[in-house]
Amino acid sequence: MQLLLEFVMAGIATVGFGIIINIPHRALLTAGIIGGISWGIYWEMLQFHLGLALSSLTATTVIALLSLFAARRLKMPMIVFSIPGIVPLVPGGQAYQMIRNFALSNTRLATHFMLEVGVIAGSIGIGFLMAEFIDRLQRKLVVRFKKVRENK
């Protein structure tokens, strides 16, 4: 039940951000679903104690792959789905805690949050790169299998 609530709330946040940045209305539901699915994966992985880095990396890769699929299906740019979809994963809370603890001269805790922000941000970037590699590999395999079928 908690996972469903997490999915719905992340979807609402994603749709809300999509409205703020003015993505096309026909893309809002799809972007919300992508955001909800990715947050659900992230949240579930954290429940199994798989760590921030792996959870963020996996969720971001899913966002990018689903965004690529939705972009092709709906004939829209991928960024229309990936930017709102990434919103639930952005480490805003950790960034706030980092700045707050630096301001309070609690450098040990501030450094901890700074490292978390860096890990999450790096995982997000690598996740998008991995999705691009997966997409290119999939395209090459499809072309190769088509050639093999034609030669038979």
TrEMBL record:
Q: Where in the cell is it found?
A: Cell membrane
- Signal peptide range in chain numbering: none
What's the protein called, per UniProt? Threonine/Serine exporter ThrE domain-containing protein
Which organism was this protein described from? Pediococcus acidilactici DSM 20284
| Residue span(s) of domain Threonine/Serine exporter ThrE | 7-134
Principal location class:
membrane
Please give the start and end residues of each transmembrane region.
7-28, 48-71, 78-97, 109-131
Keywords, in A-Z order: Cell inner membrane, Cell membrane, Membrane, Transmembrane, Transmembrane helix
GO annotation terms (biological process): succinate transport
- UniProt GO cellular component terms: plasma membrane
Q: Which InterPro entries match?
A: ThrE_2 (IPR024528), ThrE_Dicarb/AminoAcid_Exp (IPR050539)
Indicate the family of this protein. Belongs to the ThrE exporter (TC 2.A.79) family.
Superkingdom field: Bacteria
Protein's membrane topology: Multi-pass membrane protein
